[in-house]
Amino acid sequence: MDFKLSNEQKLIRDSARDFANTELLPGVIERDEKQEFPTSQIKKMGEMGFLGMMVNPKYGGGGMDTISYVLAMEEISKIDASCSVIMSVNNSLVCWGIEQYGNEEQKKKYLYHLATGNILGAFCLSEPEAGSDATSQRTTAIEQDNYYLLNGTKNWITNGKSASIYLVIAQTDVAKGHKGINAFIVEKEWDGVTVGQKENKLGIRASDTTSIMFSDVKVPKENRIGEDGFGFKFAMKTLAGGRIGIASQALGIASGAYELSLKYSRERKAFGKEIYKHQAIAFKLADMATQIDCGRLLCLKAAWEKDNMIDYTQSSSIAKLYCAEHAMKITTEAVQIHGGYGFVKEYHVERLMRDAKITQIYEGTSEIQKIVISRSILK
Ligand code: CAA
After folding, report:
1. Measuring CA to CA, how many Å separate 271 from each of 31, 177, 285, 343, 347?
2. Could you give the count of Cα atoms lying within 13 Å of 87 in the half-sphere of its Cβ?
3. Centre of ligand 1 from the C-alpha of residue 314, in Å
4. pLDDT tens digits along 349-364
5. Which of 26, 154, 188, 230 is the most exposed place for a label (fewest CB within 10 A)?
6. pTM of the predicted protein model
7. Could you give the CA distance from residue 205 to residue 33 in angstroms, rounded to a whole number?
């Protein structure tokens, strides 16, 4: 087994690290506090190729592997998890979903703009009453002459306001249950699309999370993705890759908090010596390092499976479960190591702790990952 990264993968990791430190770190506290969308930062991320990393270059993407994507996600997330969730949704849900399952016309029309970061996309699955229980879709898309008439409300949509296109999962035939669900590409500017208020969140506050309302939106038939009834499987398959993105986001949040804790414990003195020289702190750092190493290996394994066409449904859920749970633990310990300073904004760890929480919730809660994992191991 070869654990060595290629020179190209190292280059991508290092350029993501440099970019995060020079372009994302300045103002990250203020953007979080004011819930200010990182417009100029996201534009630069598009120019750097971070918004369509794995997309084939013929559609404007970077043609990179999933391992490179994990490495970049970790580095961006260490500094700014609001930017990394925008990146993750655009890369692994929207671009991947269209590239993998869209037809050539859909790719030509939408993928290039998404992969280059000219526009952002959003993934609309959750509803006010269908979060974890994704088969209970209430949004309907009823087939008419040459279009589907879309009605319903989607909730908790990352990039809700900033996106120009939405991948919308909707029920086209209620009697067929999950086999009567389809996925559609919907443009924000179409009549009947309304964007709700930006949610005032605990973490990832600079990213825009909104509800989206669809009222008699006419979706051309050519905007349906895949065969009739493929929508639920489309959502599940796309989410499996999305979970690698969120696992690496959680990993980055944790390793960001760990690196800050390491630095602080070398600078801060108590009882006559630097605090890392106290075993109480050294053991916390050892635990953090161990858990981060495990999480990184799980993310890279899931990414490697995806790159090698091996079913990654189980490994992506394991990576997400582990990294999200440990991001919460590690960031909480980071605040503890920083003491009172950890409780104020200037030291970043309180933000990382708040950002960590959502990784246990979105793209399937930790409990949902356990459903996916247990079904996979018990089947
Ligand atoms: N790949 C392919 N097919 C799959 C699949 C997968 N990973 N998972 C399920 N399916 C198929 C099943 O095989 C089944 O098809 P058949 O009947 O033909 O065999 C069908 O889908 C229904 O599957 P289940 O019976 O397992 O469905 P379920 O109702 O029990 O739900 C679940 C399964 C795993 C709990 C699913 O509902 C789920 O993942 N829920 C969580 C939803 C989620 O992650 N939401 C996140 C929102 S997106 C987001 O957060 C983005 C953002 O903005 C950050």
Report:
1. 37, 65, 19, 21, 22
2. 35
3. 12
4. 999 999 999 999 999 9
5. 26
6. 0.97
7. 7
The pLDDT confidence band at residue 134, using thresholds 50, 70 and 90, is confident
d(CA 259, CA 253): 10
Residue 10 identity (one-letter amino acid): K
Q: Ligand 1 pocket: which of 233, 360, 367, 376 to mutate (most atoms <8 Å of CB)?
A: 233
- Burial of residue 308 (number of CB atoms within 10 Å: 0-12, 13-18, 19+): exposed
For 223, phi then psi, to 5°, come to -95, 5
Q: What percent of the chain has pLDDT over 70?
A: 100
- φ, ψ for residue 330, nearest 5 deg: -65, -40
* Closest ligand 1 atom to Cα of 313: 7
- The helices-and-strands tally (H runs, E runs) of the chain is 13, 10
Query: Tokens 């959680």 label which residue?
Result: 250
Beta bridge partners of 214: 152, 193
Ligand 1 atom nearest the C-alpha of 157 is: 53
Query: Are 158 and 209 a contacting pair, CB within 8 Å?
Result: yes
19 Cβ neighbours under 8 A, 6+ residues apart: 44, 45, 48, 50, 75, 76
Please count the CA atoms within 13 angstroms of the CA of 285 that sit on its side-chain side. 18
- Mutate which of 236, 310, 315, 355 to test ligand 1's pocket (most atoms within 8 Å of Cβ)? 236
3-state DSSP assignment of residue 121: strand
Using alpha carbons only, what angle is made at residue 62 by residues 58 and 65, rounded to the nearest 5 degrees? Answer: 115
pLDDT digits (tens, 9 = 90+) for 64-99: 999 999 999 999 999 999 999 999 999 999 999 999
Cα–ligand 1 centroid distance for 235 (angstroms): 7
363 is catalytic: yes
- CA 248, 163, 106: angle at the middle one, nearest 5? 95
User: What's the one-letter identity of residue 16?
Assistant: A
Q: Go through the chain and tell me how many residues it has.
A: 379
Q: What does the angle CA 110 – CA 111 – CA 115 come to, to the nearest 5 degrees?
A: 130
